Request: fold
Amino acid sequence: MEFQKEAAIASITANVAKIFDLNTIGTLEVNKDATFFVSSGDAMDMIGNQVELAFIQGREIDLDNHQKALYRKYHEKYRIQN
Reply:
């Protein structure tokens, strides 16, 4: 089972980089661009995956957006319970 998960992840990372001859992405190695994300939950599970941090070429990207800002605004205003 673990091998199947590793093969699935490789099919969307390292193998794609090889197909398109992209030498600076696909795996985490020295002298490659650090493009990756950190999530709570299983990254391959659409429902349980919650992306916490994301980096493109080693720079952290802002994951905040207009919808999240509105959620925070009205959650606080109406004290909505989850």
The longest helix spans residues 66-78. The radius of gyration is 17 Å. The helical segments are 2-12, 14-19, 66-78. The chain is about 35% helix and 15% strand.
